[in-house]
Amino acid sequence: MIKLFGTESCHKTQYYKTFLETRNLDYAFLDVKKNELFAEELRNLYENRKLNFPTITINDKKLRNPSDKDLIKWIDTLL
């Protein structure tokens, strides 16, 4: 399961949405500004409890603003 934590107004979040959609990958977009439960889930991923977005989780792996190369590497583990 791929989760993308971010906001609609974040250009990097929009980049990752497009990245995932153009590869026909199923993912959940979790808008941390519109939903406090999503914000809390994101805070729980980091010791500093900050809203570090965009963050992508793939199963147990957490990627903070990953490069395309790193993201593709982890996506390939799902396939």
Number of E-type strands: 4
- The mean pLDDT is 94
| Separate helix tally | 3
Percent range of helical residues: 25-40%
Oligomeric state of the chains in view = single chain
Largest sheet: 4 strands, mixed
Strand order of the largest sheet: 2-1-3-4
Shape: globular
Question: How large is the share of residues in beta strands?
Answer: 15-25%
How widely separated are the two ends?
11 Å
From N to C, what is the helix and strand string?
EHEHEEH
How much is the radius of gyration in Å? 12 Å
Protein structure class:
alpha+beta
Low-confidence stretches: none
Pfam families: Glutaredoxin
InterPro entries: Glutaredoxin, Thioredoxin-like_sf
Organism: Polaribacter sejongensis
Protein name: Glutaredoxin domain-containing protein
Written account of the structure:
There is one protein chain. This protein has about 80 residues and is of the alpha+beta class. It is built from 3 helices and 4 strands; from the N terminus they run E-H-E-H-E-E-H. A hairpin with a 2-residue loop joins strand 3 and strand 4. The relative contact order is 0.22.
